[in-house]
Amino acid sequence: MDTAYLIETVIKVVILLLVFSALAGIGTYFERKILAFMQRRLGPMNVGPYGLLQVAADGIKLFTKEDIIPANVVAPIFKIAPVITAATAFMAAAAIPFLPQFTLFGYTVHPIIADIDIGILYVLGVMAVGLYGPLLGGMASANKFSLLSAARAGAVFISYEVVSGLSALAPIMMVGSLSLVDFNNYQADGIGSWIVWSQPVAFILFWIAAFAETGRTPFHLIANDHEIIDGFGTEYSGMRWGLFFIGEYANMFFISFVIPILFLGGFGDGSVLGAFALLGKMSFFFFFFLWTRAAWPDVRPDQLMWLCWKVLMPIAVINVVITGLVMMF
Amino acid sequence: MFEAIAFYLFAFLTIAMFYITVTTSQALYALSALAAGMIFISAFFFILGADFLGAAQIIVYTGAVMALYAFGMMFFDTTRDVKEKQGNEFIVVGFATFAAVLIVAIFAAPLVSTNMTAFYPMVEDAGNTQQVGMVLFTKYLIPFEVAAVMLLVAMVAGIVLAGKKMDKSLTLMNAEEIELLDASANTKVLS
Fold first, then answer.
1. Is residue B186 scored above 70 in pLDDT?
2. In this predicted model, what pLDDT tens digit does every residue of A82-95 receive, in sequence order?
3. CB atoms near residue A285 (< 10 Å)
4. How far apart are CA B122 and CA B125, in angstroms?
5. What is the CATH number of the domain that holds B39?
6. B21 has a chain A CB within 8 A of its CB
7. Region A97-116 average pLDDT
8. Whether the Cβ atoms of residue B35 and residue A136 lie closer than 8 Å to each other
9. Cβ contacts from A onto B, under 8 A
10. Does A77 reach chain B within 8 Å, measured CB to CB?
11. What's residue B191's pLDDT?
12. B59/A121 Cβ within 8 A
């Protein structure tokens, strides 16, 4: 391990943190605009042209707001919980190949922080650790609604982890590797070699589980919208509350990268066109998160558990068994 | 050099986290510190190049086991300190030290001898995951299968404990009793 490698890695980490922190902020702007257009409103319009500077205004507000630590909370855990959400989201990104490798001033750059053998396992595992943000935040808050939300968050994340793991298992069996780069290379021959054509069921299941893992709308009940509070974030204010948001949006972006790499060919053969295709697919999946939020109501907690354990998990297991049989014979 | 730095950093962090877990009387500190310690342990696997075991450590211990502890902790007020029953301190410290020294001795003993050979040496050109699979399905096949059976037993027991009307057996009932059972089937709360 030489010094050049260390410097390169540090630079990549800093770029990733800056780009996706900014994207998380801009993501809130896109969300409000798209929701507004779908509901025949204008959305943010007053700050800057078309409300573009709304992100900056929100940022200033969140950063300068007083950081209130209520009485009776377990202060150290209460303070660290939002950091866990944001940190695990960014840690999961370490194994995602965002772009094909390219040459800059004669130096070959791999836009992946750590090209480990077990990329998909690492990404799913670390995203699952993000569960501790809502869980510890809710439990440390000394608020019954926060605790309720923490329990829901725990149930949803643990249950849908099973679905996402099992649905990813079938393509893993086909590719024979856990590395996301290998996944991409397996599908590099063009649109006909995409895994989605041979694994449509796994694709749909993984996509559904992605909504639960990021806590987005059809499975958004961890935020207790129907009780007109903010779930585990009820007692939070200022930037600590904002960190929960950054974590959620960063997770949305990263899972929007992972789905195309797993099922839809990733960046293909590594040309410039392939890189733009990956960004386009990522944008579609991010847009789909927002679209679903505008179009679908939340499901009830019992419906959510019923869907996971009685519908999605059996389908995922059957899918794995069929894939195994087809590969064997 | 970087590996040495990483090793000592994570060794310090792991010991600090587990020290907090053992000594604190606040349940949430213990939970968070234990979860963090489990994650820091996975760093050693990554340093040794055992990526698969590192990821498995994160997923199994932090993602599943600790989250279940957290579920259990929701039944009591975690914002208050736990009142611990204090026994004889000398006995506790004595036994803990003895156990720690014994474990270190057990794992350090093979290092003293110089003629160590691996029963199942590394296979060239095989990835990390493949090597785990090879050993798991040859040398450790029986423990692996036994673990699977144990999980099956645990699952059946869990279903029996949590399911409704699991204490009744349809084969031991006559037709009228079964009809009565069917009539009351609609009183379930969840479908």
1. no
2. 999 999 999 999 88
3. 19
4. 9
5. 1.20.120.1200
6. no
7. 81
8. no
9. 88
10. yes
11. 44
12. yes
Residue B175 lies in a domain: yes
My answer on whether B78 and B146 are in the same domain is no
- Distance, in Å, from the CA atom of A233 to the CA atom of A146, rounded to the nearest integer, reads 7
Residue A282 contacts residue A256 (beta carbons within 8 Å): yes
**CA-CA-CA-CA torsion sign (B149, B63, B81, B98):** positive
Q: Is there a domain that residue B114 lies in?
A: no
Residue range A116-146, pLDDT digits in tens: 888 899 999 998 888 888 888 888 888 888 8
Q: Does residue B65 form part of some domain? A: yes
Neighbours of A324 (CB within 10 A): 13
Look at residue B182 and tell me if it is in a domain: yes
Distance, in Å, from the CA atom of A51 to the CA atom of A326, rounded to the nearest integer, reads 53
Residues of A with CB below 8 A from B26's CB? 74
- The residue among B39, B46, B76, B129 with the most chain A CBs within 10 A of its CB, best to mutate, is B129
pLDDT in tens, A204-242: 999 999 998 888 878 877 776 667 778 888 888 888 988
Contacts of A72 in chain B (CB under 8 A): 79
Q: What is the pLDDT, as a whole number, of residue B61? A: 87
**Distance from the B66 Cα atom to the nearest Cα atom in chain A, whole angstroms:** 10
Tell me whether residues A132 and B64 touch, CB distance under 8 A: no
B30 touches chain A (CB under 8 A): no
Contact B18, B100 (CB under 8 A): no
Residue B166 neighbours by CB distance under 10 Å: 10
Please name the residues between 94 and 133 in chain A that touch chain B, using a CB distance below 8 Å: 116-118, 121-122, 124-126, 128-129, 131-132
Residues A164, A168: Cα–Cα separation, whole Å: 6
Residues of A (147-176) whose Cβ lies below 8 Å from B = 147, 150-151, 154, 157-158, 161
Q: Where are the alpha helices (DSSP H) in chain A?
A: 3-38, 54-64, 75-92, 119-129, 132-140, 144-175, 180-186, 195-198, 200-214, 238-263, 272-295, 301-306, 313-328
DSSP state of A59: H
d(CA B3, CA A320): 39
Could you give the CA distance from residue A94 to residue A80 in angstroms, rounded to a whole number?
A: 21
Domain of residue B154, residue span: 140-191
Q: How far is B52 from chain A (nearest CA, A)?
A: 6
Q: For position A14, what pLDDT does the model report?
A: 93
Whole-angstrom Cα distance, residue A12 to residue B140? 41
Assess B191–A contact: CB distance below 8 Å, yes or no: yes
**A72's torsion region: left (phi>0), alpha (psi -120 to 50) or beta?**
left
CA distance A175 to A186: 7
| Residue spans per domain, chain A | 68-328
Which residues does chain A have within 8 Å of residue B46's beta carbon, measured at their own beta carbons? 116
Domains in chain B, number: 2
